Amino acid sequence: MSETDSVDFCTVDITSRYDAINPTVEGAVSRISSINKHVSRAFDDTLAGHGINHGEYRMLLRLATRSADNRMSAGDLSRALMLSSGAMTNRLDRLERSGLVRRVPDPRDRRGVLIELTEMGLRTIDGSVTEQAAKEIDVMSALTPKELDSLNRLLRKVLVSLEADDGAADHHRAS
What we know:
Largest sheet: 3 strands, antiparallel
Structural class: mainly alpha
Number of domains: 3
Distance between the termini: 49 Å
C-alpha cells in the first residue's frame, strides 16, 4: 500500500484489541463515514453561503424539480417532504419572509394555496445546487471515470441490500 489515510492507523489500533472486527470491513465503513463528514461539511458551507438550511434546501429543490411551473400545493409539498402541517407552515413562513417563495391562490381550488418559487428562490436553489455539484465533482476527481463507475456499482449493491432489509423489517413490523 503506497498511501495511508487517517483510517489506517485507527483500524490497526482497533483490530489489535478486538478480534471480532474485520479490518477490511472496518476500513470501508470508516472511510465511507469520513468521506460523508467531509462532503456534509462542504454542503453545510454551501447552504450557509446561500442563506438557507437543509430543510429549506429540500423544499426549494422539490419546487424546482418536481413541477414544470415551480409550484406545488402546500399539501403535496408537505407530503413529499414528510412534514407535519406545523413544520410546513414554519418553513414556508421563513422562506416567504426571505423572499424565496410566495403563496398564491390555487386556480383549481379557491380554498387552496400553491407554493411558488420566486426568481430569488430559483437563483438561490440553482446557485446552491451548482456550487455543491462542483464541490462533489472535485472530491471524486481522485478517481478515474472507470473507478467511479465501479465505486457506484459496489455502493449500490450494499445500499440495495440495506434497503431490502429495511423493507423486510418494515413488512415484519406491519404483520
